[in-house]
Amino acid sequence: MSGAQWRKTACNLCYINCGLEVLLDEGRITKVRGDRDNPKSEGYLCNKAARIPYYAHHRDRLTSPLRRRADGSFEAIDWDSAISEIASRLRGIVNRYGGKSLALYGGGGQGNHAGGAYATAFLRALGSRHVFNALSQEKTGDFWVNGHMFGS
Question: What residues contact 98, with CB distance under 8 A and at least 6 apart?
Fold first, then answer.
């Protein structure tokens, strides 16, 4: 690890966004530790963040969009093709069933908040305002506990 360097960053695997330090060696994350200088997380590191190198460099990680073939197998395609095909299919759904037939779901954990900046404009362009997320199941109890422990 002669050229390895520690870099400060933040985790986006949940809403806390803990401060992290990642060890980069030739463009690969090799280690992760909590950033003790971060005023919010103060060096805390959960199991999800500690496993970032495993997931980032896993042999089965997707590196391009995949299109399902008629036989059920998949083929890699370029991003422009994937986005064009998805847009065409969405437009077909809107044309046939109306925009209110679509909803956006923000999954729990893994960057749950990442799409928030664009979700409203995207849905309105399609004619929908329906948004669902894991907050009611995953985080409501967390907010309740934090409220009782630290004040609301």
Answer: 127
Q: What is the DSSP letter of 100?
A: G
Q: Are residues 73 and 47 in the same domain?
A: no
Residue type, position 145, single letter: V
Query: What count of residues does the chain have?
Result: 152
Question: Domain check: are 128 and 115 in the same one?
Answer: yes
Q: Residue 65 has which token pair?
A: 């969009």
Q: How many domains is the chain built from?
A: 3
pLDDT by residue (tens digit) across 68-103? 999 999 999 999 999 999 999 999 999 999 999 998
Enter the tokens of residue 44: 């805390």
**In this structure, which amino acid lies at residue 96?**
R
At 98-125, the pLDDT tens digits run 999 998 876 655 555 556 677 788 888 9
pTM above 0.85, yes or no: no
- The whole domain housing 78 covers 63-97
Q: Are residues 132 and 150 in the same domain?
A: yes
